[in-house]
Amino acid sequence: GIPFVFIFPGYTLLAALFPGGDGPGALERLMLSVGLSVVILIVGGLFLNNGFRGIDEFAVFAYLFVFVTAMSILASYRRWRAAA
């Protein structure tokens, strides 16, 4: 579960922002992924805390799942458009 929380959200956001080969290198992408994942988790926690459900394991999992899925679809679309 650690990569799902601390790497995937930031990596998918970076993949959506930089779809081609340009952008940060491999090590920079890894470090930015970890940092962005922490920020995404904190912002999600703020939204969940102010919502009707509150913060629990399922809500955090659902938030991260939706975020990673949406960013993966957006990154795939942008990479497909950049290749065409």
List the helices and strands and how they pair.
Blueprint: H1 2-6, H2 8-17, H3 26-50, H4 57-83
Helix pairs in contact: 2-3, 2-4, 3-4
Please characterize this protein's 3D structure.
This protein is mainly α and 84 residues long. The protein is globular, with a radius of gyration of 14 Å.
**End-to-end CA span:** 35 Å
Unreliable parts: none
The helical percent reads over 70%
Query: How many H/I helical runs?
Result: 4
Percent in strands = under 5%
What is the 3D form? globular
Helix/strand/pairing category: mainly alpha
Question: Keywords, please?
Answer:
single chain, 84 residues, mainly alpha, 4 helices, 80% helix
Concise account of the structure shown:
The chain is mostly helical. The chain is built from four helices and no strands.
